[in-house]
Amino acid sequence: MQSQDVAPRPPASAAGPVVDVEQAEAALVEHYPRLVRLAYLVLPPGPGRGRRVMTAHALVQRALPRGRASTPAIPAQSAGQNDDPGYALVRLQVVRAALEAGLPLRRRAWPRRAQLPSALPRVWGLKLFPHSGGADEPALEQELSALTGPARAAYVLRGLDGLGDAEVRRVLTAAGVADPAAALREADGVPERHRLLQSAEFDACALQARPTDLLRRRQHTRAALAAAAALAVCGALVALPGGGWGRDGAAAPVYAQNPAAEAALDPGKLVRVGPAAWKSATRTGFAVWPARGDRLGDTALLRRALAVWARPGEKVRVSVTPGTAAGGPPGPPQLLYAGTVDNARVVILYDGLRIARYAEPKESTAGAVLDLARVDGATGAGAAAVVLGRSDGNVRYLTAPWVKRTAERDLLEPDSGAMDLTVTDGITAPLAGPAAGGACTSWNVLQVTDSSGTHLLSDLGELVPARLTAGSPGDPREVAGSRALHDWAPYACSLGAVRARGVRSVNAWRFAEQPLPGGAGTADWVCTRAETWRGDGTRALAQIRTPGGRFASIAAKADDAPACGPRDPHALAGVLWKAKSGSWYLLAAGDGDTASIRATGGVEATASGHLLSARAKQGAQAELAGTLKDGRSVQGLH
């Protein structure tokens, strides 16, 4: 790979608008995931994905200049029409640092700051790397790795931030690139697959963890302890006890032959369910799915899938949803699918608690991927579909045998109708997945119909799509009909806040309608709550939508709290709102069981009933507390 030098930094006098440190810091915090993704993509892939993740975070966290107290203002690179100057400044610092970090170290020359290892962030005993995407992402990463650093930065700035060539040239020049035009010409050699840059494959903030080499770590620990003991006794011999049980008791040695373990890895003992078993079953779940696909007889493929599940190698990209056990199957699992999907060979297995997806490129076994997701207790709509593969921003599903019809629907356009999807042997035609980053202009979901009704399922970056419902927490209903679809539309983009959290279902509950001061119309208050397969890790978002706004704004959120859920079907939230007259108000609302609301702190006010509106100052902060009709207290979401 040819290297392209990075020229010295341009003088600060060539900069555009002036940005103070606080504004730059606010931009960094607000756009942190986007900046980390940018750094991750610009960095060379050589050191390994785990080290690359840590380096990307370190570069972004060091993007603010030193000497905050003595540097009240910082010149920033000119921003585009849709960029705020603070973000443009931090983006420039990240691009410059990522390019410098990719330069080779030179003899008799001091390394630059970005080339030095960072003390923070630091993780011990774990390897962190992004979730795996589809079959196209590794190919794009390989093409980007063949580019020079400036060309890679040009491609990423075009695709991730949507900059034109003139803006890219200005950013590269400010970052110290000697020949930006050459970088742009080199980037033109890579096909424009910019949507792939938003894939979970390159999201260095939504990470999965695996242990480091445990055997080597154990050996090093034992060696250190032995050396310390030998030093303490001045070279006395340390005798190992002879006989007796080891610390694993009567367990067989590691990797010893075991009948149960061998049965779990034998393709001939895979459980295969007949195509009509679901019709007579008392419970519709993954256990009654038939085996499908064009490679059901490929014993070698099935053997590789089982072996990788039991003991994935270092080069296998493993993705495990939160709360899901990462070990192999306890016995022979059930085969749901084995076949070719786009450019990959895919195997879907089920062990009663988890779904496992093994995928490998069609031409080789290099670049294998293993995804694991917890699905215990899944029935009906919760077991209606599994992600077969993602490619170029599209998703293919394998649907349950009881699904009668599948369609694609844009949740942001409730009046546009659903488009039928072709299904072949349970496999849907590819449908556009929801946006993984950047502007939220659409949110496509899978609509399935069975004997119980119509259900909406949203891909949240995991194996099993999340079920969407609407209504009160005690009686959530399917998102069917014009009213339910219109209720969900303003809040669809908030689903991105619960991506990759092991979400089982998301319910949208309109808990209040509040008249706005000055006759400005009526605002809707909605609480969206995400439930997970593991029970904990829930997230509730209180959102408000004012008249004329297409999307709602998140007013408050709560993690691992019972609010807006079946255990505590109540909500209380507030937000500062600016009237057209320029006056600021504190708006607060509770559900229909709220008898009174009290605000303290930056705003002192009380109101009877479940609505409160009070004059406030810009930036005021208040604590909310309410009393329910039965006398119990309720606290506001933060």
Structural summary, described in words:
- The protein has 638 residues and is of the alpha+beta class.
- A hairpin with a 7-residue loop joins strand 8 (354-361) and strand 9 (369-374).
- Helix 2 runs parallel beside helix 4.
- It is globular.
Summary keywords:
638 residues, disordered N terminus, 13 helices, five-stranded mixed β-sheet, alpha+beta
Précis, in short:
This protein is an alpha+beta fold and 638 residues long.
Fold topology:
Blueprint: E1 18-20, H1 21-30, H2 32-42, H3 49-61, E2 73-75, H4 85-101, E3 126-130, H5 136-145, H6 149-161, H7 165-174, H8 180-187, E4 207-211, H9 214-232, H10 259-264, H11 277-280, H12 299-310, E5 317-320, E6 334-341, E7 344-350, E8 354-361, E9 369-374, E10 385-391, E11 394-399, E12 405-410, E13 419-420, E14 423-424, E15 427-428, E16 431-432, E17 444-450, E18 453-458, E19 466-470, E20 477-478, H13 482-488, E21 503-515, E22 522-532, E23 539-545, E24 553-559, E25 572-578, E26 584-590, E27 594-601, E28 605-608, E29 611-616, E30 622-628, E31 633-635
Parallel strand pairs: 5-9, 19-21
Antiparallel strand pairs: 1-2, 3-4, 6-7, 7-8, 8-9, 10-11, 11-16, 12-13, 12-17, 14-15, 17-18, 18-19, 19-20, 21-22, 22-23, 23-24, 25-26, 26-29, 27-28, 27-30, 30-31
